[in-house]
Amino acid sequence: MKTTPEHDAKIARLTFASVYPHYVTKVEKKGRTKEELHQIITWLTGFDEKQIQKMIEEKVTFDIFFEKATLNPNAELITGVICGYRIEEIETPLTRQIRYLDKVVDELAKGKKIEKIMRE
Fold it and tell me: The whole model's pTM is what?
């Protein structure tokens, strides 16, 4: 499924800080913890706790967030549908990376085991 250039630009301009509280709420509402959320963010991006906090404080956009990230090689194993898009068919690399993050947060909230989320 193709995303539009407008869609790609819109989500690239979103700040990680604006979306992060929604991730926290989503996982905590389902009985998961902020620590588990950080664990999967760290797995996907390579950011440690301090770097995650810095990204929030600096209100970096997703394009900068993923530019600074070291994406886990197993991220390509993340498949499925999120927000109406089949992840593996998204052509724009940044949009695909943002949807990887959305998908692993979704999997965490749905109760999937951390090891499965990390594609181990």
Answer: 0.94
Q: What residues does 81 pair with on adjacent strands?
A: 86
The first and second tokens of residue 45, run together, are 């991006």
CA distances, 96 to each of 4, 28, 29, 46, 91 (Å): 13, 25, 26, 17, 7
Q: How many CA atoms lie within 13 A of 39 on its CB side?
A: 13
15 — alpha (psi -120 to 50), left (phi > 0) or beta?
Answer: beta
Domains of the chain, each with CATH number or no CATH? 5-115 (1.10.8.290)
pLDDT in tens, 23-73: 999 999 999 999 999 999 999 999 999 999 999 999 999 999 999 999 999
Q: Map residue 2 onto helix, strand or coil.
A: coil
